[in-house]
palmitoyl-CoA hydrolase (Todus mexicanus), 978 residues
Amino acid sequence: RRIMRPDDANVAGNVHGGTILKMIEEAGAIISTRHCNSQAGEPCVAALARVERTDFLSPVCIGEVANVSAEITYTSRHSVEVQVNVMSENILTGAKKVTNKATLWYVPLSLKNVNKVLEVPPIQYARQEQEDEGKKRYEEQKLDRLETKQRNGDVIFPVINPEPHTVGYSQSSLIHLVGPSDCTLLGFVHGGVTMKLMDEVAGIVAARHCKTNIVTASVDAINFHEKIKKGSVITISGRMTFTSNKSMEIEVFVDADPFVDDSRERYRAVSAFFTYVSLSKDGKPLPVPQLLTETEDEKRRFEEGKGRYLQTKAKRQAQMQQAAQQ
Amino acid sequence: RRIMRPDDANVAGNVHGGTILKMIEEAGAIISTRHCNSQAGEPCVAALARVERTDFLSPVCIGEVANVSAEITYTSRHSVEVQVNVMSENILTGAKKVTNKATLWYVPLSLKNVNKVLEVPPIQYARQEQEDEGKKRYEEQKLDRLETKQRNGDVIFPVINPEPHTVGYSQSSLIHLVGPSDCTLLGFVHGGVTMKLMDEVAGIVAARHCKTNIVTASVDAINFHEKIKKGSVITISGRMTFTSNKSMEIEVFVDADPFVDDSRERYRAVSAFFTYVSLSKDGKPLPVPQLLTETEDEKRRFEEGKGRYLQTKAKRQAQMQQAAQQ
Amino acid sequence: RRIMRPDDANVAGNVHGGTILKMIEEAGAIISTRHCNSQAGEPCVAALARVERTDFLSPVCIGEVANVSAEITYTSRHSVEVQVNVMSENILTGAKKVTNKATLWYVPLSLKNVNKVLEVPPIQYARQEQEDEGKKRYEEQKLDRLETKQRNGDVIFPVINPEPHTVGYSQSSLIHLVGPSDCTLLGFVHGGVTMKLMDEVAGIVAARHCKTNIVTASVDAINFHEKIKKGSVITISGRMTFTSNKSMEIEVFVDADPFVDDSRERYRAVSAFFTYVSLSKDGKPLPVPQLLTETEDEKRRFEEGKGRYLQTKAKRQAQMQQAAQQ
C-alpha cells in the first residue's frame, strides 16, 4: 500500500500510468523472488520476462491510497505467473474501485551466475482446471514471446519542420543513464523502471498530438527479451501509429547502449504499444485529431494499429455479451 | 539545511513527520560517523540503535526552510548520544520556531567487519554533572532496549468486511524492496528510511480512521535491534491501539524477509508507537471518533495505550508546573 | 526529453535552475562517455572537469517539456568539449524557447584504474576554423582552471544575531551524505548532483536576503578539481558577495569530508558564483535590497563582485551591438 504523492501525478491530478506499472512490477518481483527462494537451494532474483496486456480501468488521483495485491497463479519449470490487482481507495469517503489487473511472468536468475535460470518450486492448485488453464496461458505467452523476438527493430529519425498531426510532429525520445537505484541486486534494470520511462515518452507523444490532458488507457503485452545492465544508456523513443475517434496508439522502443562494455553493440531491449485517451478538465473523453500518415510505412502501421484496435474492441464486446448472458 | 519540497508534503501542505524523522537521522548519522572516525584506527559507520521519544511541536509547511543542527552530548565505550534540533524558518517573514528535539543513540560498526563494534573516542564535558546525567540516560535507554528486545512479536491479520472505527477497518500495511539508495555504506537500511516508511503507514491508518487531514504529534522511543540488509523485503504494518478525545495511537511493526539469504527467517526488525492528531482546514485540532475494540487483545491494548497516554500527559503537566515555578 | 515534475519546482512554479544544471550535466556525461568508448580500448567513464559560464535565458515552468540536446564540439588529447542546449516546449501551445546554452569539459577516466586518464578519439571538423576556435577555447579554460586551483579556500563562520541585509544574515549551508544514487560507475559524485545542491544553497541565501520569489539568472564557470567519493559528507555553504539594483551574486563552496578514509583531510572540492534575480508574482524583476557589508573582506568581495558584474554587462552590450550590426 502506498500513498500516491504529488510527484507521481500529471498536471491535471491523475496518477501517471507509469507509476502504477512500476508499483505492479515491484509487487510481482517481490512475490516471485520470495517464492523462488522458498526452498533450500541457490539464492536467486526473479527477473521480469513479460507483462500481459493491461487496461487502466479508472485513474487514481492524488491523496488516494493505492492497494496492490499479488498472487502466484501458475508455475512452469522455469517461470512464475503472477496476478497483480490494484485498487484505489479514497481515504475521505472510503470508496474503493478496481484500477488495474495485470499478469506478469518472471524467471528466477541465480545470484551467483546471472546467466543461469533456476528451477521454480511448483505451487499446489485447488482444482485440476486451474493448472490446465495456467498451462494454456503459459504456452500462449511463450509463443508470443518467440514471435516478437524475431520482429525487426525499427528506428525513429527526426523530422525537420513537421506539420501538426503528422507522425513526425509528435514523435519523441528521451535518454536515461542507468544508475544503481534503477537496478536489482543482479545489477540489471527493474522492469518497472523501464515501463515507467516508456509511459513517460508515450505520454509526451500523446500530449503533443492532441494538446490536452491525456491518460494511459491500456498497455499491450510487453516482452523483456534482453537485460539492461547498470551503467548503460537507454534511449526510449515513441511515435504515434494509430488514432480512433477517442484514442491514440503509440509505439515505444527501448534501445540499450552498454557503451562501457566492449563486447556488445547497441540493441533493442523492449518495445510495446500504449493506448492513450484525451480528457477534458472534468475527466470526460474528448475527440482526438486524426493522425495524418504520409509515408507507406506510416500507412501500413496505421492499418496494423486499426487491426489491433478492432480486435480489442470485438474481444471486449464478446466479454460484455458473455457477462450479460450469465 | 534543506528546503522542504512539495513531494515531502501531505495533501494539506504540512511536511510529513516521516520526512522530518529522516532528516533528523541523517544529521545524527553524519555527526556520529564523523566523531567515531576522528581518531586513527579502523574506519567505521555509525548505525542507529535507538531514537528517544520525539514530539512534533509544530508542523513545517512547504516553502519553509528546515534548519537541522546536531550535537554529541554523551559517549559510552561503544555508543554515541546525539541531540538533534529542527527549527523551521519562514523565509518570507523570517519567523523561526522549534519543530523537533530528538535524541538518538548510535553504535560504530567496522567497515571491514560489520559485526564488529568499535570503541568510541570519548568527548570532553564542560562540567562533571553533564557526564553524570549522560551516564544516567545511557543506563536508562540500555535497560529499555533490553526489555523491548524480549517483547514478543505480534502479527496483523486482514479482516473481512470490517465495521468503521474498528481496529480491522483502519489497519494497513505496505511492502518495500530495499534498494541501494536506502542503504548505508555497509549495505544496511538507514534508520531514517525505516522511520519514514513507518510514519507513512501510521498516517494511512490514522487517515482511514478519522477521514480528515492528520499530522504526526509524537513518536515513542524506537529501538533498532536488528539490521536490515540490502535486497530484503520489508513489510510495515500498522494498527490503531488507542484513541483519546483528540489523538490516536498507532502501533507499527517492521518485519524483514532477507529472502535471498538461506540462513535467515523473516524477523521483526523494529516496532514503535506513533501518535497522530486530526486537523481542520485551518489547522485546529478536531475531535477523533472513538476506536471500537472487539477482541480481548484489542481491549487490553487500548488500556495499555491509555496508560501511556495518561503517563505522557502527567509528565508534560509536571514539566509545565516546574517551568512555571522557575 | 523530460517532463518537469512538481517536485523539481519552487513555490512559484518555475523549475529550479539546479534541476536544469543536473539535466545538462547528465546529457554531457552520456555523450562524452559514449564518444570516449567508441574505439576499442580500455572502457572508461567521462568525468566532469569544468562548466563554462551559463545564462538562464528564460525559466521553465511545470508541465512544460525540456528538450536537451548535446553535441561534441572539440576534442583535445585528454578532454572533450560538449555543447548542450536546453529548449522548453509548452505542450499545449507548442511554443518553444531557448532556456540554456552550456559548454562542458569532460575527461575520460579508466574504469579499471580511476586515476588513469585515457586518450580521447579525435573528432572530424567540417572546417579548419572550427578546430582552431576549439583549440583557443581549450587553452583559455585550461589557463582558468590552473588559476582557480591556486585560489585559497575561504571558510564561512556563523554569525550571532545578524542584522537584516548583512552577509551574515543570509549565509546558509547544508550537509549531504553521498549515497550510491549520487554516484557514477566509478563511485564518484556526478557533477550534476553537486551543481544541483549548490544551486539549492544559493537559492536559500537569495531568498533570505530579499524575501521574495527568486530564480537563477546565471552561473559562472565552475571547475571540478577534486573528485568526491561515495560515503563522503559534503558541506555546501553560500554567502552573498554583491548586489546590483536587480541581481544578487552568491559565492558557493563545496567541502568534502571523506571521513571513513584515513588518508585524507577535509578539502575544498568546488566553488562558484551564482547570480539570482528577484521576481514579482507575475514574473517581473523586482529591485533587490542592497547588501550591507561590514568587514574589510566583505567590502573587498563586494568590489570584486561589482567588477564581474560590470564585465558581464559590457560583454553582453558588445554582443548585442554586434548582433544589431549584422
